[in-house]
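Model it.
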Amino acid sequence: MGRDGVPSYGLWRAASALRPDDHDPRHILALFAEQAAAQRALSVPMPTDPRARAVAMECLRRIGEPGGAQDPETDGTQDAEIHRAFRDETGMTLGRWRYAARMRIARDLLTGGAQPSAVARRIGYAHLPTFSAAFSRFHGLSPREYQEREAAGGR
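Modeled.
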C-alpha cells in the first residue's frame, strides 16, 4: 500500500495476474493518447469533414513526437480535399492549423505552471529558443512573459 492509501504499482501488478486473453497494454496506452488528443482538440477549431478530422486528431495525438509536426501520411488523391476542408471549415490551412494547435496547447501548459523548456519538448520543439520565438510570434509575448502576466491576473 502506498503512503496515500492507494495500492502501489508493484502490489497492483502482483495482485492482478489474471488478465483477459486479449489483454494488450498498448491498447490502454492508445486509449490514453486518444483521450489526450480529444482534450487538446478543445484548444483549436476542428474540421467536421471526417477525413480532415481524422488528420487533425492524428496531428494532436502525435504533437510531441519527433516528426509529429509534419503532415500525417494520407492518400495522395485525398490531400487536396483534406486541405480544402481545413481551409473551409477552420479558416486555416492544415499547416497553420497545426501551428495554432501547438501554440494553444503550449499556452494551456504554461498557464498550468509547466516550465517553458518542458512545454517546448512536450509539443515537439527540440530547442527552447525556437519554441520561444514561435510562441512570441503567435501570442505576442515570450513564454516567460506570458506566465508572468497570467500569474499577475492576466492583465
